[in-house]
């Protein structure tokens, strides 16, 4: 009798674990929404720059455009964009950012982006960020 109860408990546990994995998409991570990406960027970068309200809205616009372009490139080919494409997009984004920020703010922005790149490299995150990657994703 104890053996049957133990067997049933084991089967139940395995079934519940399988159901949990199935609900989670087989363990695959869903990409963050635009709002989540902007919030993460704001928390990791913008909040440290002492932005004025107009600067904040311009930065949100720049990054929304950047994330939208990145998504469209990924969705078009199903592959990660090439390093060259990412670097060009990052450089274009940073040119727009430079026009919004003061010299001191842009220096701080550049330093923060470099920190993000270093953290990505340490985590094995691939192509880096400031030069074209998805600025602060983690």
The number of E-state strands comes to: 0
| Structural classification | mainly alpha
- Which range best describes the helical content: under 10%, 10-25%, 25-40%, 40-55%, 55-70% or over 70%? over 70%
Give the low-confidence spans. Answer: 127-138
Please describe the biggest sheet, giving its number of strands, its sense, and whether it closes into a barrel.
none
Query: What percentage of amino acids are in beta strands?
Result: under 5%
The end-to-end span amounts to: 51 Å
Q: How many helical stretches?
A: 5
Radius of gyration: 21 Å
Instruction: Provide the residue-averaged pLDDT.
Output: 79
Approximate shape: elongated
Number of domains: 2
Order of helices and strands: HHHHH
Biased composition (Gly residues): 123-138
Region (Disordered): 115-138
Signal peptide: 1-22
Protein name: DUF4890 domain-containing protein
Summarize the structure.
The protein has 138 residues and is mostly helical. The chain is 70% helix and 0% strand.
Description:
- Residues 115-138 are annotated as: Disordered.
- The protein has 138 residues and is mainly alpha-helical.
- It has two domains: 1-30; 32-138.
- Helix content is 70%, strand content 0%.
- It has helices at 2-23, 34-44, 53-77, 83-100, 103-123.
- α2 (34-44) crosses α3 and α3 packs antiparallel against α4 (83-100).
- It is elongated.
- It starts with a helix and ends in a 15-residue tail after the last helix.
């Amino acid at each position: 009798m104890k053996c049957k109860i133990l067997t049933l408990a084991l089967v139940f546990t395995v079934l519940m674990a399988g159901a949990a994995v199935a609900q989670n998409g087989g363990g695959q991570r869903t990409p963050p929404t635009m709002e989540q990406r902007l919030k993460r960027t704001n928390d990791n970068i913008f909040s440290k720059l002492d932005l004025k309200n107009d600067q904040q809205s311009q930065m949100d616009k720049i990054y929304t455009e950047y994330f939208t372009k990145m998504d469209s490139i990924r969705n078009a080919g199903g592959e990660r964009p090439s390093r060259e494409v990412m670097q060009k997009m990052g450089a274009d984004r940073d040119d727009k950012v430079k026009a919004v920020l003061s010299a001191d703010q842009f220096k701080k922005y550049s330093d923060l982006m470099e920190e993000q790149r270093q953290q990505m490299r340490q985590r094995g995150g691939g192509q880096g960020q400031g030069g074209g990657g998805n600025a602060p994703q983690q």
